[in-house]
Fold this sequence. Notes:
Blueprint: H1 3-17, E1 25-30, E2 33-37, E3 43-47, H2 84-90, E4 91-94, E5 97-100, H3 112-129, H4 136-142, E6 152-156, H5 162-170, E7 175-180, E8 194-198, E9 212-218, H6 227-237, E10 238-254, H7 270-286, H8 292-301, E11 306-317, H9 326-344, H10 347-352, H11 357-372, E12 379-389
Parallel strand pairs: 6-7, 6-9, 7-8, 9-10
Antiparallel strand pairs: 1-2, 2-3, 4-5, 10-12, 11-12
Amino acid sequence: MTSDELRSTEEVLQKSKAPSKQHSAFRKVRGRSHVFEDDCNRGHAYRLNDLSRRTLSLGRAGADETSSSGRTTSPAPSVYSFNSSDERQVLRQAYGRMVNSQIESYFLPADYEEHRRLDLQHQVYTMALGALYPAAPLVRWALRPRHDRRPAIMDVGAGSGSWAIDMAREFPYCDVVGVDLVPPRVTGQLPENCRFEIDDANLGFSHYRQTYDVVHARAVSMGVRDFPALLRELADTLRPGGMLVLGDGEMQLYDEERQPLQYSERDASWTQRVFFAAYNAMRNRAGGSIDSHSMSPTWLRAVESLTEVGWDKVFIPVGPWIYANEKEKHLAEMLRANTLAFISGLGPLLLSEGYLKESVEKMQHEASLEIRDLRVHIYTRWSFAWAMKRF
Length: 391
Ligand SMILES: C[S@@+](CC[C@H](N)C(=O)[O-])C[C@H]1O[C@@H](n2cnc3c(N)ncnc32)[C@H](O)[C@@H]1O
């Protein structure tokens, strides 16, 4: 790798790590609500509700829109935040990283480092698509301004919150809610029209029937017990004409000809080994949902209330071993940085499967060297699928 390539990869990593602003202080105000004071000195309430269902709602201070199920009943604009005692309820330590403490199947980290990786991965998705979403004309039409109400968007498995926040910025006249097992660690100022809820998508969304114009779920499959059932739930949360948008990166790696790399114990690169081990560990935890990237169009067609099913796939090289222009080079560099951080976050998943610490560290170390030095010429494939709610 040339020094130029090294520098640009480092820059990408640095940028993804650099916190712009950190949330700082908070104080308890009443009952189990907390007011959080961010560095803009805005106070926001954080409600912990219905812990028996392990469901937490994050709503604006003073807004009283919490249902008996403990979840907010409208997509009203609001913001939130998060403190250390809340953290103990939704996160736990595992093998040296923080993971969610709500479900066992999702076992990638849920800490600051992972959220900065997700920020970077969000840039990869966005640059690869050239937009925040596929099927742009349909999504924009679903979110057109209306006289009678504000259009509403839900992001399921919102992660670091970057998609929800970017959508709130692109569509300032819409309300956006991000839902996840853990709170996002937002480093900048949240748009007023964006808020977050802590919730498990496996519990369903009966409280949000016919509420949203766009529902987005990207890279959540490992945490989903029954993907087709989730799609039916999400379809029910859509208004007629609303769009359901899915995205996922595949664990299958592709060769220089964009053909699936076959796994053979004898010839596999370290990168293949670590991806293969991670895929099997994910499958053991999540079952068939993990293959949602290839099954989504079929599953979407099976939902009677959905129509206009479409899908798309994008190949991106891991590192700039091939590129036609500066944009492609930058995308490949970002994906390389993301892949290195992803591999480094696989510790808890692989160790919990019974791999020896030395084996995991060896795989991670060797695979990272291969990728950094562009010794493996690998493509990854990113899948998108969408459908419209029938009128
Ligand atoms: C790989 S991250 C992707 C984050 C985000 N969608 C993105 O593309 O940047 C997966 C996220 O889904 C969340 N998640 C997984 N299972 C979930 C579930 N059952 N309910 C809610 N969130 C879930 C995880 O906590 C994690 O933040």
